[in-house]
Design brief:
Blueprint (H helix, E strand, L loop, with lengths): L18 H4 L3 H13 L2 E2 L8 E5 L3 H11 L4 E5 L14 E2 L9 H20 L6 E2 L3 E5 L3 H15 L5 E2 L2 H7 L10 E5 L3 E3 L1 H14 L3 E3 L3 E3 L8 E5 L2 E5 L1 E4 L5 H6 L7 E11 L9 E4 L2 E5 L5 E4 L13 H14 L8 E12 L6 E5 L2 E8 L3 H18 L1 E2 L18
Parallel strand pairs: 2-3, 2-14, 3-10, 6-16, 14-21
Antiparallel strand pairs: 1-22, 4-9, 5-9, 6-8, 7-8, 11-12, 12-13, 15-18, 15-19, 16-17, 17-18, 20-21
Bound molecules: flavin-adenine dinucleotide.
The site of flavin-adenine dinucleotide (FAD) has 42 residues, from helix 3, strand 15, strand 19 and helix 10.
Amino acid sequence: MSDKRNDIPGHGPEGLIRRRDFVSGLPLALALGASSMARAAVRPPLPRPAHVVVVGGGIIGVTIAWHLARRAVRVTVLDPTPGQGCTQGAFAMLIAGQPEGGSEEFNALYVRAVADWRRFQAETGNVLPIQWGGTVNWAAPGDRADTMAADWRRLVSWGVGAEAIAAGDVARLCPGALPGEFGAGYFMPDQGAVDIDGVMTVLQAQAVRAGVEFRRMSVVDLPRGEDGRATIMTEHGPIVADHVILAAGAGTTALASRLGAHIPLDLVSGTLAHSKPMEPVLHRVLNGPLGSIKQNPNGTIVTGLDYAPGASGTDISEAYGRKLFAIAARTVPALKDAVLDKMTLGYVPIPAEGRMPIVGPLAPAPNVYVAAMMSGVTMAPLMARMIAAEVVDGIRVDMLAPYRPDRFNPQWNA
Ligand SMILES: Cc1cc2nc3c(=O)[nH]c(=O)nc-3n(C[C@H](O)[C@H](O)[C@H](O)COP(=O)(O)OP(=O)(O)OC[C@H]3O[C@@H](n4cnc5c(N)ncnc54)[C@H](O)[C@@H]3O)c2cc1C
C-alpha cells in the first residue's frame, strides 16, 4: 500500500518594512547552522504527536504542515482563507540583511534561512518558482547612502556576501537599468526572490498529496484541555488534537491570549503593483531609491515604492498602480510597457521589541506552539524544519533560544 506522504518529492518510503528590513553568505550559513544544530539539547519530550492542527494557512503554516507531513504526522490546517493573509501581499525577497540595529546573531539566522531555501527547493522537487540572481541595493547621495555604506561594512564584517558597487555596476549587474544619482550601494549575490503565488500553489498541492487536510474555518478559542490533549474551538465546533501550532499571522495575538500568553505583534501595511507577464527584463531584484522591482519566473513584474514600517501604504487604486510602474520605468525603461494586472495590500505582523521571531511552546499549555515572525517568506523553510523537529522529536533547538515566547511572559518564570 502506498503512503501519500511519499508524494513529497525527495522522500522515500522510510521518510515517514522598510523594504530592506523585509530584505548572503551561503558558506557562512552552513557553517553557523552546523555548529548550532550540533548543540541542540534534548528536553523531556511530549509524546510524539499523532495529530497536529496548524492554525493559519499562510506561508508559515503551510510550510510547517509540509514539513510535519513528511514526518508521518497527521496534519490539519484550519484557515477560512488560506494564503490570503499577509502572504499574498509579499514582495517575497529572500533576504539576509538586517543592517540597522539587528545583532550579528539575528542576522546569521536570516543568512541561514536564505540558504535553507536551496534545501527546500531541492526537497520540493526543484519546481518552486525562485529567482536566484541576488539583490542590487543602492541609494541616492545623502543620509541614506551613508547608512547604506555603514550597513555594507557591518554585513561584510559579519561574513555576509555583500559586494560594494559603484554607479556603473548597476547596469553591469542588470543590463538596461539606470541608477540615477548614485550615493552608495552593494550587491548581495546569494539572495533571491520567489513568486509567492506560485510557491503557495505548489506547497498546498504537495501538502494535500502528502495527506494534509485543509479545512476552511476560523478558530475562535483554545480552551485548556484536562486530558493533556489540545482542544481547538472552531466556528463549526471543537477539534481535538495532540498538538496545536499557532501560525495565524496577525490573528496569533488574540488566540494566544486565550491561554494567558502575551504575543505582541505590530501590524504594518504595504502595497505592491503586479504587471501582466512580460518578456524577460530582470534577472535580479533591484532595491533602488525609486523602489523595489523584480520579475517573477513567469514574467510578471512586481514593484513597490516603499513599504517601510511607518509608511503604512494602503492605496490599491489602479491610478496608484500605474504610477508605481511609471516610477519603476525611470530605473528600468523597458517597464514603460508594463501593464498593471493587480494591486496587493498586506499587513505584516512584526514582533514587537526588536522584530525577532516568537517561536516555541506556550508554558500554560505546552502542546500549543506559536510561530510568528516578520520576513516570513524568507524564514519559512528554516523555521518550519526546526519547528517540526521540536514538535515531533521533542528536541529543543538551541538556535531558537533567543526567540522564545517566554521573553514576553515573565509571569511564567515567577
Ligand atoms: C508589501 C510587503 C512586502 C513584503 N516583502 C517581504 C519580503 O520581501 N520578504 C519576506 O520574507 N517577507 C516579506 N513580507 C512579509 C511576509 O509577507 C510575511 O512575513 C508573511 O507573509 C507572514 O506569513 P504568515 O503565514 O505568518 O501570515 P499570513 O500570511 O497572514 O497567514 C496567517 C493566516 O492565518 C489565518 N488566520 C488568522 N486568524 C485565524 C483564526 N482565528 N483561525 C484560523 N485562521 C486564522 C489567516 O486567514 C491567514 O491566512 C512582505 C509583506 C508585505 C505586505
